[in-house]
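The protein record quoted for completeness.
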Amino acid sequence: MAFRKAVKGTLIGGGAVATAFGLSQFFEYRKNRARLVYVEAQGELKVPFKDALPTREEQLSTLRNTEEFDVLVVGGGATGSGCALDAVTRNLKTALVERSDFSSGTSSRSTKLIHGGVRYLQKAIMKLDYEQYMMVKEALHERANLLNIAPHLSAPLPIMLPVYKWWQLPYYWAGIKMYDLVAGSQCLKSSYVLSKSKALELFPMLKKDKLVGAIVYYDGQHNDARMNMAITLTAARHGAAIANYTEVVHLLKKPDPKTGQEKVCGAHCRDIITGQEFDIRAKCVINATGPFTDSLRKMDSQKTANICQPSAGVHIVIPGYYSPDNMGLLDPATSDGRVIFFLPWEKMTIAGTTDTPTEVTAHPIPVEDDINFILSEVRNYLSPDVEVRRGDVLAAWSGIRPLVTDPNSKNTQSICRNHIVNISDSGLVTIAGGKWTTYRSMAEETLDAAIKAHKLSAGPSRTVGLMLDGGKDWTPTLYIRLVQDYGLENEVAQHLAATYGGRSFEVAKMAQVTGKRWPIVGKRLVSEFPYIESELGFYLDS
């Protein structure tokens, strides 16, 4: 009965989604053709700072002394940096401030995946939810774009979905194939079914008892913190004035000459390092502060109702022997209905995530219950021969997701990770919600709304296909040149190529001589890890 019900729901929902798929593919094709025609007509974008970037002091000077910016973005996470890049590449005079390090918050505490959302597609099919379907489709388009514009920081990753009941095999297979179908020409690699023996060969840590087989599909994996930095640096190279450790103390307002209504016209900021305060004036202020969205909105108006419900996502890092080097694993239905990933990362294994309501704090700490929950789910899928111990947890982190929800809702597990763009009566533009993968399209939508609301002079977005910092000159064999030309260790060269891409040669040139026969240059900061001293100098010079 359960099998017939599942198959029936899949077939009915699949037909509806297939119809929606055909129509959306057609409209997407026309939309992309129009965008490409515009980009070709405009030619290449000007990059004022191709080589050396302005120092932080120079950036702060620009922020203080510019009479008025077109756009001021508050928040240096993925979405805020994406908004700054979108704005500056439309030839808008752009400023970006972040009160901590760029990507120090939620954007660096993700599952490291660039994905469309398999479970959202399942909801779209079973509930005939067109909005969920379009969210998945948009994310799959953005997944392909992100893999293209930052190839040094991202790559396709096979993910195994183990199956322990016979009826689940066709059910999951149909769902994963629909995932490939929705991706269309942007499908990374086609999914496939594995026998029990082949699944255990590829993932020997799996629990053998009652294993029927497995399905493998592909999503993207990326270095989230470095990806965020690449977006930020790309915005700076195109002329955006950016500054970290610069917080907004309060918003600036002035009366509208026509209506007399108070309008946001900038922000009063403080340099946290020096304590100096100054004004940044702008025609438009964009609130992209993630979990702190409501705090900035209340600077605009204390009467504003909250639009975000924060949810904590905890991940743990365990030794690399918990997963193969080149394959992840998805647990599609945990004991409480959530989804857990086990993913290879930096020769270790990441396991997560949780999804529990939380309070907003600048430094969220993972709680013991969440860590134990993840360990319990790991035990359910791994062989009894593998003893899962609390002492194996090498690190843990908690990221706060700014979920968009009804303020009266208490169940964050069913909340759609979609986003909203809101413009207040005073003109403050807020982008809230969403997910890492769709940062670019969220930024595009935000700038479209801001340009319309504030009557700014700018053309369409130009960020589709725009290479991020370090991506242009990267090749899969770039690390070999670093070894041969500079005498770096192979592991160090691979790390530099995968972190800085085409700019890794600049880091290599700064590397100090070791005084050994090999490696010739590149002193490690810690012997167990491939990080070298010249990276610190490169960060300071950047």
